[in-house]
Design brief:
Blueprint lengths: L2 E5 L6 H14 L3 E4 L10 H11 L2 E2 L3 H6 L12 H11 L2 H9 L3 E3 L3 E4 L15 H8 L6 E4 L6 E4 L13 E4 L13 E7 L4 E7 L3 H10 L4 H9 L1
Parallel strand pairs: 1-2, 2-3, 5-6, 6-8
Antiparallel strand pairs: 1-9, 4-5, 7-8, 9-10
Length: 233
Amino acid sequence: MALIAVISDVHGNLPALEAVLKKINEYKPDIYLCLGDVVGYGPYPSECLDLIKNRGMSTVLGNHDAGVCGKLSLKHFKSPNRRLIEMTSEMLNTKQMQWLRSLPLVLENQEWLAVHAEPLNPEKWMYVDSAIKARKILSKVEQQLCFVGHTHMPGTVSDKIGITTFNQKYKYLINPGSVGQSRDADFRASYCMVNTDKWSVVFDRVAYDTERVLTKLSKLGFTRSESHRLLRY
């Protein structure tokens, strides 16, 4: 039983990651989970990777991480993101690239399972973007909690239709949303805290300096329009 901080889809957005970690530190979690995509889209891949690595976060491989370290063909990515992924590969040093390559697709224990994309076929990088898909997954995994990212949309789904509260009687799929590139109407950085003692989940949003990110992307040669696309999708 523990207090778990769950983040995902940092995407090289250092100001967002710093803001989220500052809030998370107030909780003093027992476990830090990162559901992948440490890099991609954002202009601070090296700094974000080091922050997560040095914090000792339990981290899984995301599709952008796989693209940067050569585990996934760049044909799966579109510009301007593909161009930034190529640049990211050049920004990281040998040890950082080795760390990305060492990340597992799945982390799990008796209580929870953590993965970037669809847990039943994690190497296919499919989205869990509906309650129907989520319940199918929950019917096949043994753990009571299943943490996924990839959609950049925070939320939770139980294995029983109509259950909207967090209750120890049921299984749950939990998506913390994205730290670095939110895709809903709230552009602030997103994360969640899960308490398996009190059996509670808290989703939170944190404001950060978006202009700092846009300015950095501009210095890397991206137009203002491209920079907004990378930050907002």
